[in-house]
Specification:
239 residues; 30% helix; alpha+beta; 10-stranded antiparallel sheet
Length: 239
Amino acid sequence: MLKIVSPVSAALLLIATTSAQAPPEDRAAALKQSLAANQAALRQYSWIETTQISLKGEVKKQEQKQCSYGADGKVQKTPMPDAAPAKAAQQPSSGGGRRGGRMKQAIVENKVDEMKEYMEKVAALVHEYVPPDPQKIQAAQSAGNVSTQPSGAALALTVKDYVKPGDSLAIGFDTAAKKLSSYSVNSYVEKPKDDTVTLAVTFATLPDGTAYPQQVLLDATAKKILVKVTNSGYKKSGS
């Protein structure tokens, strides 16, 4: 039986087997090329993106969108009607006098709005890192912020300052199984020390060998916000 190897896996395997003699910039360039090839393959597909945002363990918002790439190379998303609506925030009773009650309610509503805005920023951050952007890796490489560490059957590639100053992207590759073993990010929403976030991606492979991010988990620990993005139902356009 012929085993299909995705563009990402093929190039990462090349990086691993030549890591002893090839300079870091060549290994990063190979990865960049493989990611570009994989992205070109993904553009043939449409899929369903399911996003779930939780606050302190309680689901606050869940939505589904039909996704596909447009002619400009950007992902176009159409909300699906069956998506679960966001839960309305409960407002406390306006006790303690009419004026005092209105002031308290206004303060609560303002805090709720700020939290909703923050949750949207956290959710949007997912798409800054997934899928990986070859051009951003190239920029980091040019700045000297890409390093590789081969170790036996494994290969680790680290990209610093990928999207924001001080962030890091780590890609792990299992050379024996010829597949991505890990994909993680350390970043932040607005302030590096106050609202750090971690992101982990689980990849899967389509029948033609194209790799895609099956599930993304982003944890904003300080605010107790968890974003889970699941991609499913991949179909080639026109099929």
